[in-house]
Amino acid sequence: MKILVKLIIIMLILSSIVPSSVLGAPIVCTFTPNLGGTPTISDEYPSNTTSNIEFTPQLSVICNDQDGNTMTVNWSSNSSGEWVVFGYNVTTNGTIYQTNANFSNESTRYYWRVNASDGTNYIVEEYYFTTLADLPQFNITFAGNPYGYGGPLYLPPYDLADDVKPLADEGYYTNASHQSVTFMNVTVNVTDESSDVSEVWLHLLNETTWENATPNNTGYQMIFYNNNWTYNVTELGNYNYSFDIWANDTRNNSNTTSWEKRVGPDEFTYYRRYVSFGYAPETFNYTNENTNFYLFAERYTTSRPWADGLHHDQGTDHGDGKDTGYLLQTLPGEDIENISCAGYVGALVDETLTINQTDVFNVYQHTWWNGSGISYNDELLFGYNSTKRDLITTLDNPEQTSYGTNAVSNVSVYLEDLYPVDNGTYNMHLTSRLYNSSTEFNVTSNSIYQLMLMWETYNLIVVSNRSLLSWFIINVPDNTTLQDLDSDSDGLNDYEELYVTFTHPFLDDTDYDGVSDYSENNSGSDPNNYTDTSEPVYGSATFSNPYPENNSWTNYNDSDINITVSNPLGEEMDVYFYWFNNGSLIGSDLSVTNNTVANITVPFNYEFYQQYYWNITVVSSSYNNQSGNWTIQAESEHPDIDRDYKCYPSDLSILVGNYMTEGGAPRWIRSDLNFDGAINPQDLSILVGHYMEEF
Ligand SMILES: [Ca+2]
Ligand SMILES: [Ca+2]
Ligand SMILES: [Ca+2]
Ligand SMILES: [Ca+2]
What we know:
This protein has 8 helices and 38 strands. By secondary structure, it is mainly β. Strand 14 (240-249) and strand 15 (254-258) form a beta hairpin.
């Protein structure tokens, strides 16, 4: 070092007194005068502020000195808690390198400095970078039944742009769905940026209890290939299930994720998904009423609480998110359910329905609507998606025939908070008709989500509440069958309701105005317009099949009186039984179902050969009908005896014969009877006399 310093001093002295051109070439090669230029530092790696840098990277910079002087370079970092030099270079112009063993933690920001000096001038540059996250990352690509047909229309939105809504694989479970099967298959893709994934486990949540939290439980199976782990979870009970995935990497870093639903593209808020197993599947059956569906709205917007509120992961809506609804098997209440859009609206069958494979051959539509650009005569497009990928095609080419194209009722009603039009009074129109499907279409518990009914027109509003009731019936039977049914016992048969009055065959007051469909139809008010009512016009309650039959003979101790009672409104009835002679009440049978038997018991035995007259009064909320009277004539204990009040020998033989066959109780053997084992004529007279005396 001392020799070098002396040499530099000598050179400096020489350079100050000798022109450089005089100096020999060997000296020029080893001596660079410092003319005041400052070193520069550039092209650092990792670039300042960058992220996802691998651990302990090789740091580098390019040092340049304007005068070409040799530079001394110090590298320092504060990774140990204070600024400490960790590297040293002596360099001429060019790239230099160092590493720092401390720069080895994941997701950590490291600051580093480079100080380059040419002996006179120096420069310091400070940088930072962030190491990569070395946690296993998850993508749950499937959770469902890979052998099941169907699945939700869309996958979870995750980080995709709002317009990109990929379709789910067949069998994918939508959130909160009910399944008849008792298993699920889960496939998850696990990646790790800097090391290999070593372990992946499924943790199952059964309602509120974590199960199978230890690896390799026999309750499920794990298959590994590439970066996809597939679990077959079997033998699940009738509960709500969810799950977590947990993974570890070879650096012993672990991470976990849950089966969740993201509630919006702009808000990183999630809630846990679940699926329910073991539900007994229903079969669509018109007479069970389980083919009836009512329209409900489900809001989903870009903001909470409605962001992606749909079970099937449609994602968020650009606008107010009122263009999709649900079809549920429950009646709506007073609140107006409305779906609306400038383009089209649709409604999906409830995901909680579990059904057997069912062919859909027609759908009956009864919807209240308003469209600013259409008239009553415009047909509303309507259809289903035969497979989820055919949804748009099917909508563009609805296969339908209709019973009518005119609105069958119109109601002017004030509605709040409607889109796209503001609050106001709307003329709502009712279209009610049957669509036949010419294309075979069947649904199962897992494809029920695909059954979507849609209308495509401009600025359409479709509403429903208990008075403006919008409903659908899947698989309406043929007309002959309908004509034999009055499912709601309102006096109109189901054919009349669907195709004549356009009322609900399972509701006796479709528009919920307090007057029955039958009565409105009879009196001329609109059974679909809750603002149009009239005084009820009732028919009469009717009675049939009185027992005992009128003017018939009956046994003295037959205490039963009954009669079949009916009324056209199908109401329950209280039936009172009276003795016609004096008007005294015999008894009553209350809350008798329409078209069934009302029954009482007479509290005494009839007198022989007397006539009794009785009648009934039928009372319900709509009826107070009194019958004429019927006659009961009481006869003897033995109805095959001639009833002329005289005893003939033939009667005696019948009497004795009956007596002898009645069971031979000891009481019949009187002490004055000379009973020697054979029946003599005097025995008969005693027997008959005894018989006659007994009453
Ligand atoms: Ca009816
Ligand atoms: Ca009805
Ligand atoms: Ca009514
Ligand atoms: Ca009405």
